[in-house]
């Protein structure tokens, strides 16, 4: 009988493996999001929330200002439209990881697969992310058709700003997903709470100049602030009112790139540490009854 004096080398994870896991998770996530209803009802459900939110903001603006400041209305519409992406990405990533642990109780099986949890998590949450982009388009369409919002898109500026901004938001969502895996019942409400806090300090619906001074450093450090500012310049042709509007276009894009370059490795390192801690502490098996 032949004697094997050394172990066979273990094949590493390939991009094909990660892509297969990601692609499978996309189909699973879409099925979970959309198979509860027929396509027409799902479409109505998808469109109703962003349209209602945009309508509420616009009515509030018209009542308060009597339509006297059209530039601020443009500022408001773009900020409220793009914030659907922030909320969709963060809630999508966090709810995906919590649902797979709490409701479907399959996360521990995904973690031990060769590709691990990360590609699966990104694919699993993609359906919610895509729905959030539908909300952006609908909100902007309402602004153009009914509120005389004039778009002057500069694709050479808007495309890199969008790519960097979405990557930064995904990084924030990955960090939140790993963090919420450490928590118990309150974890389900954290995405909305954190997104609401960022909504306040990132200049989504009002300039950050009116914030208390102690919040200004947090606002300037957040990549969502620079993404919204860059997107406004790419869509409207001008920046926000206040201090941000005085910064050059190139500097805004540079600050977005720098904040994104910091957020991505920090989020990935934190997610890896959170997963290691969750495995050691048995949190992958934990159910909270939420």
If you had to describe this structure to a student in words, what would you say it looks like?
It is a single chain. The chain has 290 residues and is mostly helical. The chain has one domain. The protein is built from ten helices and no strands. The chain has helices at residues 15-34, 39-65, 70-102, 107-111, 118-146, 155-180, 190-201, 216-221, 223-236, 249-281. The chain starts with 14 loop residues before the first helix and ends in a 9-residue tail after the last helix.
Task: Tell me the number of helical segments per DSSP (H or I, 4 or more residues long).
Answer: 10
- Rg measurement, Å: 21 Å
Mean pLDDT: 83
Class inferred from helices and paired strands: mainly alpha
Largest sheet: none
Distance between the termini: 57 Å
Molecular shape: globular
Ordered list of secondary-structure elements with their pairings:
Blueprint: H1 15-34, H2 39-65, H3 70-102, H4 107-111, H5 118-146, H6 155-180, H7 190-201, H8 216-221, H9 223-236, H10 249-281
Give a concise summary:
The protein is mainly α and 290 residues long.
Question: Could you name the key traits of this structure?
Answer:
290 residues; mainly alpha; 10 helices; 0% strand; globular
């Amino acid at each position: 009988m032949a004697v094997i004096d050394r172990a066979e080398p273990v094949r590493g994870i390939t991009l094909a493996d990660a892509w297969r896991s990601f692609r499978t998770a996309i189909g699973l996530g879409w099925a979970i999001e959309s198979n509860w209803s027929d396509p027409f009802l799902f479409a109505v459900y998808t469109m109703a929330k962003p349209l209602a939110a945009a309508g509420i903001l616009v009515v509030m603006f018209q009542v308060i200002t009597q339509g006297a400041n059209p530039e601020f209305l443009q500022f408001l519409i773009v900020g409220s439209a793009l914030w659907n992406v922030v909320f969709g990405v963060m809630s999508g990533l966090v709810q995906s990881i919590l649902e797979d642990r709490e409701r479907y109780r399959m996360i521990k099986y995904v973690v031990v697969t060769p590709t691990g949890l990360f590609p699966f998590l990104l694919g699993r949450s993609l359906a919610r992310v895509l729905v959030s982009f539908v909300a952006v388009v609908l909100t902007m369409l309402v602004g153009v058709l009914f509120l005389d919002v004039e778009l002057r898109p500069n694709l050479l500026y808007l495309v890199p700003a969008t790519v960097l901004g979405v990557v930064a938001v995904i990084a924030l969502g990955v960090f939140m997903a790993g963090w919420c895996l450490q928590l118990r019942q309150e974890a389900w409400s954290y995405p909305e709470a954190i997104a609401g806090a960022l909504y306040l300090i990132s200049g989504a619906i009002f300039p950050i100049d009116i914030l208390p001074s102690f919040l200004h450093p947090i606002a300037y450090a957040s990549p969502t602030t620079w993404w919204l500012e860059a997107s406004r310049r790419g869509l409207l042709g001008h920046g926000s009112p206040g201090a941000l509007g005085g910064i050059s276009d190139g500097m805004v894009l540079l600050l977005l790139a720098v904040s994104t370059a910091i957020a991505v490795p920090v989020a990935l390192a934190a997610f890896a540490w959170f997963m290691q801690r969750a495995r050691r502490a048995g949190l992958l098996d934990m159910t909270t009854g939420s």
